[in-house]
Design brief:
Layout lengths: L3 H22 L8 E8 L5 E8 L10 H23 L6 E6 L2 H26 L26
Helix pairs in contact: 1-2
Length: 153
């Protein structure tokens, strides 16, 4: 078992190696729009999990998630070999790839916040010229009906 510090450093290094290899060394066009967002390794240093996102060719295009997953699966062996050569660990960890859900969750939160802001703006707009339904001071004041000696009896 490796310490948390060593496992963390090795996980980060593996993420850097894989990201660089995807960008510069592996010439698969399906990997062109993949970004490695995070990497973690188990305490026994046997399995490294790499989180990735995929973007479309343009901002309006949907990403091809199936092609990206197939490309990562096809390149897994070469990537593992590169990791083994560049890290120098006794046992090269198995690489697993997981689609990162954080960007989608963040986008959903932004949409919810925008909707809440729009509703708040609508309430503010409606209340802008509103007046209270009743007297300006709705509280009763018994001071006018009480006489100064009523409490003395």
């Amino acid at each position: 078992m490796a310490g948390k510090g060593r496992a963390g450093r090795l996980g980060k290094r593996i993420g850097e190696i894989v990201a660089t290899a995807i960008e510069h060394e592996i010439k698969d066009p399906r990997l062109e729009f993949i970004t490695i967002t995070d990497s973690r390794i188990t305490a026994d240093l046997r399995v490294a999990t790499l989180y990735y996102t995929v973007r479309g060719r343009t901002l309006d295009d949907e990403p091809d998630l199936e092609a990206a997953e197939a490309a990562l699966t096809a390149a897994r062996g070469r990537l593992r070999t590169m990791v083994g050569k560049q890290t120098g660990v006794k046992f090269t960890p198995e690489l697993t790839f997981v689609l990162d859900a954080v960007p989608d969750a963040a986008r959903h939160m932004e949409e919810l916040l925008a909707k809440a802001r729009a509703q708040d703006e609508e309430v503010r707009r409606v209340a802008e010229g509103a007046r209270p339904a009743g007297d300006e001071d709705p509280y009763r004041r018994d001071e006018e009906t009480e006489q100064p000696g009523d409490d003395d009896r």
